Amino acid sequence: MDVALIASAAVSVLAPALRHLLSLGADKAAEAAGKGVAETLWEKLKGKIFGKKSTEGAAEEVAAAPEDKGAQKILGTHLEQILAADPDLAAEIEKLLQNAGAFHQEANLHGDGAIAQAGPGGRAVAAGKGGIAIGGDVQGGVRLGRVDD
User: Fold this and answer.
1) Is residue 127 domain-resident?
2) Beta-carbon-side half-sphere exposure of residue 84 (alpha carbons within 13 Å)
3) Is residue 145 part of a domain?
4) Distance between CA 133 and CA 118 in Å, rounded?
5) Is the pTM of this model over 0.70?
6) Across 22-31, 97-106, 137-146, least confident range
7) CB atoms < 10 A from the CB of 46, how many?
8) What is the tally of structural domains in the chain?
9) Domain extent for 21
10) What is the CA radius of gyration of the chain?
11) Nearest one of 13, 95, 29, 134 to 62, comparing CA atoms
């Protein structure tokens, strides 16, 4: 379980709705639960966010400027610490985000090299120029060599 990835995905889901969710306050946010992924996620995290002044401040920063990547990163760091301290909550949030399709990765490679990315619970495998990367078992006949061989 990659809590940094889970925290980042959670911030991406929460950011656009955070101004509304914070305006509801800690108590009334419970009434909004079930309306969408952001509200359900908020229901699970709000007690941890309101329980720590610095995290609450980070959430308020994102609410004020939902597109601010710096503010999102700070909130993500706070959420990462919260999730690392509570593996059961992290697993619950991860499942919620997976079901909502909230995990996404992007990679760009320019020139020679390799990129390895793994999703939640996955393994990353990479091979450089001319290399072969196999992320699982290989069965059957395998021939290695250049096309002109």
Assistant:
1) no
2) 10
3) no
4) 14
5) no
6) 22-31
7) 21
8) 1
9) 3-99
10) 20
11) 13
